[in-house]
């Protein structure tokens, strides 16, 4: 070796390995190089040595020791830090990868192993015809969630390869540019907005093979559910710690697959990571809507999110309706789409969309001049020690983002008994329609934790108005906001689905369908009820959804999923600075929640809207966040890398900047600025 002063002025040997498929040609090539040789020149010298006539344009150098790609071909070996002991592999950038989709189907496609994961996911979504790729990411299944499967696999081999959908010949996978028409706002509809079936122009997107229509169907349409036995063998989280395992394996969006140890033919999960489903449209988003529906359905079946027995039956009824509608469609010739049906779907969409900013802001001036208020007799329930509850009726007045209550209506002109500021509080529904129970649980932040207050309403209408007002107030918005009325309608719509009455004629209607009720509910309810009881209860709940189209049934399912208190929460086990015990941190689209690990009760909530800045101390892996009113928190993450939580926060803030008025091209630089960190 030359001395450090002479380094770069003399030649030296560099052993390069070539990843090619020709068995009769050697794979290692020694080259004499100098430090001022650039990477592009090294590639040229190597290809001349290999003497294999083929397209080398997809090849690049992978530095094995440093786990990085050498993609800047104008950089010299000196600038890259490459010396004689470097192990460089000349390999393809695009490799085959297996992806498990939210509908539990596996696709095999060619993906860039050298691009950042954010870009790779964007390319994958173009192959699958899923808009808004920024909502998805790639997840490695953690060891804890695979244990149950491994026990099963001792006596059985891997699933047959026929279950894998091979998309390696799609336009994007082959290195061709994506069809810009698929992402144009002026494009013609590519899916039927009622049935969700692909139009003929859509089918040509995937390929020209005879199996193309089937491939489209696998992605855009839901298929019969798995058996109860298969469901029972899948990983089901029992505790918050178990739920934290589900979110431990998110890949870093700012690094490539290869840099994160992903190998060719590995299997990853493609999942919706961010629960802000923007600009859903059945005309263009059949695959996206179906995959969201499937992710929601499996979350319900595997109890990744908690729901009541009443809610579980609604989810079962909506699944049953979807399969009934699909069977009836397949047995008839589908007529042209009725305008009224399209209107119903679009009306459902207006209630469905979740954004950080809320609804249309065009009537802001009108809202400012007239801020509505609610005034009603409600029951106040305050939990006391020894499980006793004090229930008393008061006159409640809701103005701006605060609730005041008085002894009676006549005393409302004076000072209230108490005034509750709901900004930043947690709002949890406490409803049982069958028992005529319409409660609202408020967890209001105070200096030493959360103050619990329960409100009891008399009927559905009163509950919907007050619940909607509380939800908006928790986000710092008033009833003057244009999203108030849609929120009221969404709550009423959900209550209406719960409010079924037994009618023998209607309930027996779908019995010609071979219904297996165990496929529509989680194993807990399969154990609780006999099959006939379960069938009867699902058919009873089915009445209110029996007229829905395929797409509307899926949209209503997603809407009901979004109405659950735990919707959109991703859990992590953390240790807060100054604390002697572990807590659970829930990350949502608009807030962080500190949760007691033993009881599951929320301790404190911090909203992103009041966040001033956040940063990470990479040396001690600690996340520090500053909020308004001099509130600061710091914690270390125990169940995953702190980069994952850092990316979650930045990612949700990035998604809040989206607008329908802007061009649909993503500001990738802004995403990495908010999520990348300075590690």
Q: What does it look like?
A:
α10 runs antiparallel to α18, α11 runs parallel beside α18 and α13 crosses α14. Helices cover 31% and strands 22% of the residues. The strands form 4 sheets. The protein has a 7-stranded antiparallel β-sheet with strand order 14-13-12-11-17-16-15, with helices on one face. The protein contains 20 helices and 24 strands. Among the domains are: 82 residues, Roll (Ubiquitin-like (UB roll)); 108 residues, Pleckstrin-homology domain (PH domain)/Phosphotyrosine-binding domain (PTB) (PH-domain like), CATH 2.30.29.30; 106 residues, Roll (PH-domain like), CATH 2.30.29.30. The N terminus is likely disordered. It is an alpha+beta fold and 679 residues long.
Q: Main traits of this protein?
A:
PH-domain like, seven-stranded antiparallel β-sheet, alpha+beta, 679 residues, Ubiquitin-like (UB roll)
Give the overall pLDDT as a whole number: 81
**How would you classify the helix and strand content by structural class?**
alpha+beta
Number of strands: 24
Q: In CATH, what is the homologous superfamily of the domain at 372-479? A: Pleckstrin-homology domain (PH domain)/Phosphotyrosine-binding domain (PTB)
Evaluate the radius of gyration: 28 Å
Strand content: 15-25%
Sheet having the most strands: 7 strands, antiparallel
**N-to-C CA distance:** 33 Å
**What portion of residues is helical?**
25-40%
Number of helices: 20
CATH C-level name of the domain at 372-479: Mainly Beta
CATH architecture of the domain at 372-479, by name, is: Roll
Indicate the CATH topology of the domain at 372-479.
PH-domain like
Question: Which sequence of strands runs across the widest sheet?
Answer: 14-13-12-11-17-16-15
């Amino acid at each position: 070796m030359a001395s450090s002063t002479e380094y770069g002025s003399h030649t030296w040997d560099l052993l390069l390995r070539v990843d090619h498929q020709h068995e009769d040609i050697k794979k290692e090539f020694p080259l004499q190089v100098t430090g001022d040789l650039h990477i592009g020149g090294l590639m040229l010298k190597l290809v001349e040595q290999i003497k294999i006539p083929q397209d080398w344009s997809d090849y690049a150098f992978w530095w094995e020791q440093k786990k990085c790609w050498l993609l800047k071909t104008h950089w010299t070996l000196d600038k890259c830090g490459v010396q004689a002991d470097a192990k460089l592999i000349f390999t393809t950038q695009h490799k085959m990868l297996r992806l498990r989709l939210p509908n539990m189907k596996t696709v095999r496609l060619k993906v860039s192993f050298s691009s950042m994961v954010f870009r790779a996911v964007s390319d994958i979504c173009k192959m699958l015809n899923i808009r808004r790729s920024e909502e998805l990411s790639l997840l490695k299944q953690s060891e804890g969630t695979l244990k149950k499967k491994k026990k099963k696999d001792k006596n059985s081999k891997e699933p047959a390869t026929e279950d894998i959908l091979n998309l390696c010949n799609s336009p994007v996978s082959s290195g061709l540019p994506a069809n810009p028409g698929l992402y144009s706002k002026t494009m013609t509809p590519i899916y039927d907005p009622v049935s969700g079936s692909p139009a003929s122009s859509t089918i040509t997107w995937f390929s020209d093979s005879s199996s193309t229509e089937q491939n489209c169907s696998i992605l855009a349409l839901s298929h019969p559910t798995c058996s109860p036995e298969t469901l029972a063998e899948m990983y089901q989280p029992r505790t918050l710690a178990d739920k934290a395992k589900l979110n431990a394996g998110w890949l870093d969006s700012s690094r490539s697959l290869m840099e994160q140890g992903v190998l060719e033919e590995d299997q990853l999960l493609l999942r919706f990571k961010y629960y802000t489903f923007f600009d859903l449209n059945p005309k263009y988003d059949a695959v996206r809507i179906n995959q969201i529906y499937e992710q929601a359905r499996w979350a319900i079946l595997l109890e990744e999110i908690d729901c009541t027995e009443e809610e579980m039956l609604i989810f079962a009824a909506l699944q049953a309706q979807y399969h009934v509608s699909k069977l009836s469609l397949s047995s008839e010739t589908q007529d042209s789409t009725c305008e009224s049906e399209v209107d119903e779907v679009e009306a459902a969409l207006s209630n469905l969309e979740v954004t950080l900013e809320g609804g249309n802001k065009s009537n802001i001036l009108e809202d400012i001049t007239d801020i509505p208020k609610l005034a009603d007799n409600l029951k106040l329930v305050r939990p006391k020690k020894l499980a006793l509850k004090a229930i008393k009726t008061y006159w409640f007045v809701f103005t701006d983002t605060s609730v005041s209550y008085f002894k009676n209506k006549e005393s409302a002109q004076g000072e209230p008994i108490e005034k509750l500021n709901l900004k930043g509080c947690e709002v949890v529904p406490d409803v049982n329609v069958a028992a005529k129970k319409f409660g609202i649980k408020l967890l209001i932040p105070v200096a030493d934790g959360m103050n619990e207050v329960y409100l009891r309403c008399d009927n559905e209408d009163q509950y919907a108005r007050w619940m909607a007002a509380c939800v908006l107030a928790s986000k710092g918005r008033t009833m003057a906001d244009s999203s108030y009325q849609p929120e009221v309608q969404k709550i009423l719509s959900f209550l209406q689905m719960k409010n079924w009455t037994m009618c023998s004629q209607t309930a027996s209607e779908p019995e010609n369908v071979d219904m297996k009720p165990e496929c529509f509910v989680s194993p807990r309810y399969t154990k609780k009820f006999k099959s006939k009881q379960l069938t009867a209860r699902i058919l009873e709940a089915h009445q209110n959804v029996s007229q829905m189209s395929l797409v509307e049934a899926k949209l209503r399912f997603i809407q009901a999923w979004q109405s659950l208190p735990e919707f959109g929460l991703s859990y992590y086990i953390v240790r807060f600075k100054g604390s002697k015990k572990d807590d659970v941190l829930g990350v949502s689209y608009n807030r962080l929640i500190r949760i007691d690990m033993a009881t599951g009760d929320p301790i404190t909530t911090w909203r992103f809207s009041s966040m001033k800045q956040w940063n990470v101390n990479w040396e001690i892996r600690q996340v520090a966040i500053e909020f308004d009113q001099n509130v600061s928190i710091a914690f270390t993450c125990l169940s995953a890398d702190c980069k994952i939580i850092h990316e979650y926060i930045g990612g949700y803030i990035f998604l809040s900047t989206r607008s329908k008025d802007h061009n649909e091209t993503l500001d990738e630089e802004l995403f990495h600025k908010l999520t990348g960190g300075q590690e």
